[in-house]
Amino acid sequence: MDVIKKLQASDFFIEPIPKNAVEAMAYVPFQNAKTLYSPEQGICMGTLFPELSLPFDPENRMRGDGQ
Amino acid sequence: MTERAILLKKLSAVEFAAHELHIYLDTHPDDVSAGKAMNEYDRQANALRLEFESKFGPLTPGEDGNRWAWISDPWPWNNQED
Amino acid sequence: MFVYEKKLQYPVNIKNPNPALAKIIISQYGGPDGELGASLRYLSQRYTVPYPEVKAVLTDIGTEELGHLEMVGTIVYQLTKGLTVEEIKAAGLDAYFVDHTAGIYPSAASGVPFSAAAMQVKGDPITDIHEDLAAEQKARVTYDNILRFCDDPDVIDPIRFLRQREIVHYQRFGEAMRTKCNGLVMVMNTYKLIFVSEMLSLWKELCIMLYLVIYILHNHCLLT
């Protein structure tokens, strides 16, 4: 059901965490989008980007740490 | 679902895609392929919006002659599937 | 300026009124971590921000939050349509009803009216973005909590959408701390200059660049 559109391959890339990261500054890893959901799938998920799709998981089933 | 609700759903999906890429491009202005995708979705959204407005009345206040079309129900908080 | 589009960002079509749900969902309308606070916060912070990418992010996300405010208002409105007095009383909405009838009044689930005291505009770009990151997480948790109480799919659907949007906004605000314009601030840190979170004027930035050029040239001369 996941209809994914690949963005054209480009040389666009930003280092997720900068190599010159310093103390006392906060960083959120920079997103480098490579694929998109279709508009219909995207609006249903709440985002066009599969990597940002983090659904509500009250029983922590997706924790994946063996628990 | 009514024809109006179906067309509104299509328009909302494409507008959402354009908007999501628009805010992505605020922090990634140099991502050319994302820019191209946004332009494509914008184009599709404009076409769908024109189609919706011609059939079901204006979505933004404009110079359209029919003032009752803007004033009339349904407004967004009314149930659109009634 | 603001242009209005006569449609919701995501559809809300609720078939079954539910005053008990309305009572808690209204917190995302006028509560401390709700959409009204979010949009006011972002739209107010953008005036004093020196970096254009951040101004764009604050404007675009602030505008989207106004659309979310409309969605939450719609959810509460549809959940309280056509209720009898007995249903209102049974759900504990009688105190609200006395002052507001079925009107949508910006307040929290506790009844506390909306207040800007729950938000901050510090006038410092790093601080304001941290405020925004926290705001997005608080809103996301509020939606988590609403989902814990929800069993109506017509309500779960738009709430789920709104919750996911908060996560995307969090990502954008995080990225906004590393825009091209404030990349210079990051570089300053690696050369051990003292970083003070302040708004740099262009003149100051030019002086610092000149300092860096001289510093690099000086090192080069030492090596040859």
Explain how this protein is built.
The complex is a heterotrimer of chains A (67), B (82) and C (224). By secondary structure, chain A is mostly loops. Helix content of chain A is 10%, strand content 9%. Chain A contains one helix and two strands. Chain A has a two-stranded antiparallel ribbon with strand order 1-2. Chain A is flat and about 40 Å long. In chain B, 67% of the residues lie in helices and 0% in strands. Chain B has helices spanning 3-27, 32-56, 67-71. Chain C has ten helices and no strands. In chain C, α7 (125-149) runs antiparallel to α8. Chain B binds chain C through residues 5, 8-9, 11-12, 16, 19-20, 22-24, 26-29, 58-61, 70, 75-77, 79-81, and chain C through 3-15, 53, 56-57, 60-61, 64, 70, 73-74, 77-78, 168, 172, 175-176, 179-180.
List keywords for this structure.
heterotrimer; A: 67 residues; little secondary structure; two-stranded antiparallel ribbon; 1 helix; flat; B: 82 residues; mainly alpha; 3 helices; elongated
Strand content of chain C: under 5%
Gross morphology of chain C: elongated
User: What is the general shape of chain B?
Assistant: elongated
CATH classification class of the largest domain in chain C: Mainly Alpha
Distance between the termini of chain B: 9 Å
Query: How many domain regions of chain B?
Result: 1
Number of domains of chain C: 2
Largest sheet of chain C: none
Q: Specify which chain pair forms the largest interface.
A: B-C, 26 and 30 residues
In short:
Chain B has 82 residues and is mainly alpha-helical.
Walk me through the topology.
The complex is a heterotrimer of chains A (67), B (82) and C (224).
Chain A: E1 4-6, E2 35-37, H1 39-45
Antiparallel strand pairs in A: 1-2
Chain B: H1 3-27, H2 32-56, H3 67-71
Helix pairs in contact in B: 1-2
Chain C: H1 19-25, H2 27-30, H3 35-45, H4 52-79, H5 85-90, H6 94-100, H7 125-149, H8 153-176, H9 183-190, H10 202-223
